[in-house]
Amino acid sequence: MTKKINYDTVFNWTYFPLLILNILEKLVNVPNTGLISQTYTITMVGMLFLFLLKVIIDKMTVENIFAIFIVSIILLLKLLIGSNYTHTYMLVPFLLGSQLLSNRNSSFLKYSFWVKVTFFLVVFSLGKVSVLPSIQVIKSNGTTALSMGFVHTNSMGIYGFSILIDYVLLNCRKNITYVNLILISLFVLIIYQLSLSRNFLLLSIGLLIGLISTKYFNKMYLKKSTLQITTILIFMFGTFLWMAYNPSNLIWQRLNTILSNRPMLSKYYLNFYEIQWLPQNFERLFFDRFWDKLEYYLDNSFLQILLSQGLIISILLFCFVIFAQQRKRFDFITSMLLIFVYICLVIEAIPFNIFLLSPLFYQYFDTRSRDK
Angle 50-53-58 (CA atoms, 0-180°, nearest 5)? Predict the structure, then answer.
């Protein structure tokens, strides 16, 4: 037990500084200099350190071996291809980290929630007093919102959704109360009013509907086959559906409006970059206008991984997710949150970011291991 407690403490003291560093680098409007510019290297070193420590303390699992196999292929391809390989930032930390969090680490979710809330308040306050720069974003309906220290208002929205996920995991897995539903609803209204992020609103409404339904399903475990089939469908939808985008089709026009041009931009990237077996150089695209350059964002994690990493790594990653889920049992709330996490990856460019999407710590939420 002493070894386990020591490992949990080391994990927390390593993980949460990495969490803050990654939020600063990815979501907050700070200069990419100094320590921030070394975020990827520091994260890799930290996750490798935790992985080696976990292997020394506990026996290596089949998932660990599978993860190391994929990481080795990624690093080998990076070595062989060099600068022509655009490495997707979060894949290696996800592959290493999804199995690292001990499900006896009772303090993790509490710390994760309060660290994120505190950091949100700090960034928002500094943005409010103009210490951190804020960007004014004009939404498709003509309304405007300020990013309040974040890189974009959508960045504030996705960070708010990350806080919401941790709150649900911390307080709603055993019992849903009216107080929790009211607090969640108020939080959703506040974050939406600040960010005007449509994606945040749609994901949060879906999550609220799922939580309200848990009075019928909370005592059940979602069948593995149901979770696996749903995961496969979301992966396929997020990766290949955009190939069928047709701007003259009324349904696609409406969907494109709802998703803030994501289908159109996904098809644009698919037409520009051919799908390869091996990784390729993948850069953000720009549209030249007379007075400036318009930046085209690919806010689709699955498609971003496919185009940058190639079919081989994408297939291995997909198999790893299915394999890791198959060997575990999740309660209904966790299964539902995993589905929403995968949906989030379809409309946001945060490829398997374990610092924002806590349900990706598969081992931590395995109820069979906790019951042993």
Answer: 120
Dist. CA 140–CA 300, nearest whole Å:
19
pLDDT at 261: 83
Quick: pLDDT tens for 36-56: 778 888 888 898 898 888 888
CA dihedral 129, 130, 133, 135 (to 10 degrees): 70
Q: Closest by alpha carbon to 19, among 111, 127, 128?
A: 111
Mean pLDDT, residues 16-27: 91
What tokens appear for 149 in the block? 């220290």
The string of DSSP codes covering 213-254 is: THHHHTTS---HHHHHHHHHHHHHHHHHGGGG--TT-HHHHH
- When pLDDT is averaged across residues 313-339 and rounded to a whole number, the result is 91
Distance in Å from the first CA to the final CA of the chain = 14
Pick left, alpha or beta for residue 82 (phi over 0 → left; psi -120 to 50 → alpha; otherwise beta): left
pLDDT exceeds cutoff 80 at 224: no
Please give the model's pTM, rounded to 2 decimal places: 0.91
